[in-house]
Amino acid sequence: MGKNKLYFGCLIAVVLIIIAYASYGMLNRRQNEKLYPVSVIVDNSSSDRWFAFREGLKQASRDYHVQLNIVSTGELSNLEEEKLLIERESENGARGIIVQMCDGNEEEIFAQIQESAGGADVLLVETDVEPEGILPAVIPENYEMGRMIAVSIKEDMQDLTGKKIGILMGHRERLSQKQRLKGFLDEMEDTGVEILWQITDNDNVQNEQLGTAEIIVALENDETERAVDYLVESGTQSCSLYGVGCSEKNVYYLDKKLIKVLIVPNEFHMGYQSVAIIAAKSQDHVLLSQDTMVSFLVVRPEELYEEDNQKLLFPLVQ
Amino acid sequence: MNRIKEYFIRKKSEYAGSHRSYSIQMTISISFTIVSVCSVCFLSIMLYQQFVNKTKDITIERTEQVLNQTAINLEDYLRNMRRISDAMYYTVIKDKDLGYESMGEEMNLLYEANKDNLISIACYTNEGMLVAAAPVANQKENLNVTQREWFREAVGQMENFHFSTPHVQNLFDDPSYRYYWVISLSRAVELTSNGKSALGVLLVDMNYSSIEQLLSKANKDNSSEYLYLMDSSGEIIYHPRQKLIYADLYQENNLEAVRYDDGSHEEVFDGERRLITVKTISYTGWKIVSVTPMTSFQMGITDMRFFMIMLMALSLLTVVVINQLVSAQIAKPLQKLNVSVKEWETGNLNSDIYVGGPVEVEHLGRALRATVEQIRQMMQDILVEQEEKRKSELDALQSQINPHFLYNTLDSIVWMIEGERYQEAVFMVTQLASLFRISLSRGRTVISVEDELKHAGNYMNIQMVRYKDVFDVRFEIDPEILCCCTMKLVVQPLLENAIYYGVECMDGEGEILVKGYRQDDDIYIEVKDNGLGMPEEEVSQLLKENHRVRKRGSGVGLMNVHNRIQLCFGELYGLEIESAPDEGTTVRIHLPYICYSEKMRDKLEAGKQQR
């Protein structure tokens, strides 16, 4: 009788363990099916320049079961504003936050951003902070982009001695801008060019000043558009524009040959990779604090409709 | 080989050994459970497999349906585009003489009617000059359309429609910075100008978004299955991950799939087994390809797998509980029967053998009960027989009174009467009468110690007359024991022995002491003489069955007395003999302390008082 009870008890225990295992499996599966909420905070989020980036984000959110929330933003002028947004998104349940840093690059920002994010993972896009590697970042090869502008200018003009170059850049403190500028200046060293001016987006400068340069170098999408606007407005023919950008406006004026060379970062890749990296964190709980570099294209007007270029430059669906 | 054989034999015997120790309930329960577990597992696996196959079939069927439906929609769409082109050509271009007529208005009307699916309609001369376009827009500067693929193909194969792969339209200037992905449908047309015919090309740029929407509908769900579209050379026209493919973040096996015929194929791509279903779109040669990773069949049924496991476990739980109840129900009568048999085995002969349960068990119980009853009856018979035997043996023993004693006594009485010693003769006769009265005791075998000692006294009185002054006899009896039970004729034979073997030849110095006393729950009656005694070896032989010496005396020997006491009171009791040469002999009767009453006497005589 004792043996019978023991055998009966063991069997019941085994069956109960199986039931527990099956219940856990069913519940856990439903748990796994939950979407991982990720918020994206970028400067002027509705801008055309983010079109490919948004496409990349959306594609990755489908592939990695991420619930994407692209926060509607205007122009993010300072870090405090951005921190408030991060804090709000974290409170709203975001588990991951993809941020484009609008200002500053110091190490202490890292702590402030982390504090605002609470328990959410933070990933930087487009621009990094110094020293690099504190926060994971998906960024274009900024230095190379700057350098390739210089290389393109050198290819177009045999003798650059005495050429007056004006540089339009985004926020001076932004690391991406610094890197692009450095890349450009390093390549231009010993060419005899004269850097006539360096204007940031915050500088209140009259457009006439732009006309004083023979070559305008724009290190950011908005600055390239600004230069385009000036050239269209003024009808100036003597000024060559080399810029960084990916908006349809910039592509259009590249097509119109107003822009000599357009450096186009692969923003689709940047968006896709950002979500992919932050989603990977949700699965293996490890977020590597290292930069992921995104390639870019150097496009001239005559190469715009080449198959490889049009695949990356033009959005498939309007 | 031998070792293996030995191992199996050992295991078998171990199993047999362990198996024997199982209760019937456990055996039934284990057997039922094993059968149930096997059945449930088998059923579950079969059901699961059936479900997997069914799911796979349904998935394939659904995929083919989606594929066919998408192909139909796409063919409709493309047919519609060809109709637009036909309508433009046969109803507008052919009817117009461009020398003095414009086709712009009709072209615009056609465009407006279909603008959801179109980006533009344009007609070019063989030299690449724009004849008309809708919507009206500025053509880009320095445009040489004759080098465009759609133009070259249209001119190259004039009788056909030509569908291009998706590309960005690069014909008209759009100040709103819009660029459109289009699929160009081009054909050679005959233009009439001032009555002269010339070759031209009609271009209908279809909006890629329409095709994209059409195909993305089929890729709506989040499963890992998807459809993509490619042209006859394997160039991708639509893919749900098209941008990823363009960015080299994803790869598709389109160049391999383009070689597949219509229908389903299995392939391994990028380490993944996939089911590929291909459907070719008529006229264009485009192919819609459905990709279903084999893992998706498994993924879709993971819930089902867990559900089946849970169902199986719950079934097992139910079966195990039911098995327990059923086996308990079946085993219960057998267990009851077993308990009653065990009780009987422990010595309780009055144990009631269980009769009940199913017919077989009831029959078994009845048979066992009858057998037990028979055994009990037989044992009773044996007891009765033994008692009878004991009684007859006792009677036989008691009847062994030596007739010699009677003859001698009667002879002594005759001599007394002849010698006119009437008083002595009367005494002798009285004593003899008393002796016989007690000897007979109305056939009883158990009498009181008092009667037994009186009997001994009678006997000694007779002997004292016969053996005048030869020995002396004393009785030292504890009055407490007089009321106890004893077998009759146990003291007299000892006295007889004491006289004949002890003090007969001692010429007046012989002494016989009869001593009775109680010790705890026992009583002792000693007959002690100071006669010749005997060696120890002889003492040890006295109470043995084969030692029967009857030289003289009443004939009731020590062995007789000893056996009678043991038969009546049990083997703990009987005679004890102590003797040494020249130191006399003590024969001690050991009896239990049992007060004499008629009831007790009857019990002892019936043999029920044995300890």
Q: How many helices of chain A in DSSP terms? A: 11
Helix percent band of chain A: 40-55%
Give the radius of gyration of chain A. Answer: 25 Å
Residue stretches of chain B low in confidence (pLDDT < 50, at least 5 long) are none
Name the CATH superfamily classification of the largest domain in chain B: Histidine kinase-like ATPase, C-terminal domain
Largest contact between protein chains? A-B, 41 and 43 residues
Share of helical residues of chain B: 40-55%
How much strand content do the residues of chain B show?
15-25%
CATH fold group of the largest domain in chain A: Rossmann fold
- Mean pLDDT level of chain B: 83
Largest sheet of chain A: 6 strands, parallel
| The CATH class of the largest domain in chain B | Alpha Beta
Number of DSSP-assigned strands of chain A: 12
Q: Any idea what the shape of chain B is?
A: rod-shaped
CATH-defined architecture of the largest domain in chain A: 3-Layer(aba) Sandwich
SS-derived structural category of chain A: alpha/beta
How can the largest sheet of chain B be summarized?
Answer: 6 strands, antiparallel
- Per CATH, the architecture of the largest domain in chain B is 2-Layer Sandwich
Distance between the termini of chain B: 63 Å
